[in-house]
Amino acid sequence: MDFVDLAALTIHDVKNRLALVARRAEAGGDPETLRGVLESAAELTRLLAFYKAERGGLEPQIDARVPADVVEEVVAETGRQTALTVAAELSGAPVLGFYDESLVRMVLVDAVYNALRHARQRVVVGARQRDGWLVFYVRDDGPGYPPEMLAAPAEMRPLGRHGTGLGLALAARVAAAHANAGLTGQTLLSNDGGAVFSLLLPA
């Protein structure tokens, strides 16, 4: 058994234990603990995915998907973990897109967790089609990204403005794993009434 196999089994076991704690937190009406536990579980998943990406093992399973579905699932999952509002924005979403749903979902959940740390009242998760791109985005109403984050390459940006850089670096690799018609996916950070994280995939 190599490291990746062992890490995957260990992460699966730890996530099962965290799921028990999460159920207790949800039953006890403690959304902050629930979010902390589920965010920790998601971090383990990202760590393994990043390791696979570094080893060239991040192989996306791209298929026809409904962007509204993954947005609504992320909103439902993260919305129950906070007293803030987490809303979907789908008026510009295409009916279909071609992407790896599990990887996109992982990136969006991480972006929402980051947004919840800085939002004042509201986080919006959306999808739209623009100029040959399928754009997934997460927007909050917080203070926005600091200039040093906006200027740094994706691989060097600190996660959540206070962390390791794993989340955004992995998002950049997920984006780059999606290519079509000469276009390669990318991530963008911007400010527009708050921080905006965008995942652009070739349509």
Low-confidence stretches: 158-164
Task: Summarize the main sheet.
Answer: 5 strands, mixed
Query: Under CATH, the topology of the domain at 61-202 is which?
Result: Heat Shock Protein 90
Proportion in β-strands: 15-25%
Radius of gyration over all CA atoms, rounded: 16 Å
**CATH superfamily of the domain at 61-202, called what?**
Histidine kinase-like ATPase, C-terminal domain
| Shape-level CATH architecture of the domain at 61-202 | 2-Layer Sandwich
Q: Quote the distance from N terminus to C terminus.
A: 39 Å
Describe this structure in words.
- The structure is a single chain.
- This protein has 203 residues and is of the alpha+beta class.
- The protein has helices spanning 3-27, 31-54, 67-79, 101-118, 147-151, 166-176, and strands at 63-65, 85-89, 97-99, 122-130, 133-140, 179-180, 183-184, 186-191, 195-202.
- It has a domain at 61-202: Heat Shock Protein 90.
- The chain is built from 6 helices and 9 strands, in the order ααβαββαββααββββ.
- The chain has a 5-stranded mixed sheet with strand order 2-4-5-9-8. A two-stranded antiparallel sheet has the order 1-3. Strands 6-7 form a two-stranded antiparallel sheet.
- A hairpin with a 3-residue loop joins strand 8 (186-191) and strand 9.
- It is globular and about 45 Å long.
- The chain starts with a helix and ends with a strand.
- Residues 158-164 have low confidence and may be disordered.
